[in-house]
Amino acid sequence: MPYFLYILWMSNGQLYVGTTSELDQRYKRHTKHQASRTTTVLGVEQFLYSETHSDRVAAEKRERQIKKWSLVKKMALIHGDLVSLRKLAKRKKP
C-alpha cells in the first residue's frame, strides 16, 4: 500500500510535515481541525507538496529527514529547485 509524505503551509508561516496512507482524507481532517494538535491550533492555509513512497516505513523515514531541514531547504524541495537543494545539502568532510 502506498504511503505519502506531505507538507502543509500553516497560518503562522510554519510548515507541517506528515505522512499518511489516505492523502485526501488526511488533508480534509487537517482543514477541519481533526487531524493533529499543531494544525488545529495554528490552522492550515495551503497544501504544498507530496511524495509517494512504497510503504509506511519509507515515508516515515523521509518525514524524519525533512523535519530536520531548514525552512529554506524545505521550500527548495517544494519548488523543485534541485540546484538550491544541492547547495543546501550538508556535505560530509573527507
Class based on secondary structure composition and strand pairing: alpha+beta
The residue fraction in helices comes out at 40-55%
- The CATH class is identified as Alpha Beta
Please tally the helical runs, counting DSSP H or I stretches of 4 or more residues. 5
Average pLDDT works out at 92
User: How many independent structural domains?
Assistant: 1
Strand residue percentage: 25-35%
Distance between the termini: 39 Å
What does it look like?
The chain is globular. The protein has a three-stranded antiparallel beta sheet, with helices on both faces. It has five helices and three strands. 45% of the residues lie in helices and 26% in strands. The chain is α+β, with helices and mostly antiparallel strands and 94 residues long. The chain has helices spanning 23-31, 37-42, 56-67, 71-78, 82-88, and strands spanning 3-10, 15-20, 44-53. The chain has one domain: GIY-YIG endonuclease, CATH 3.40.1440. The model has no long low-confidence stretch (mean pLDDT 92). Helix 4 (71-78) packs antiparallel against helix 5.
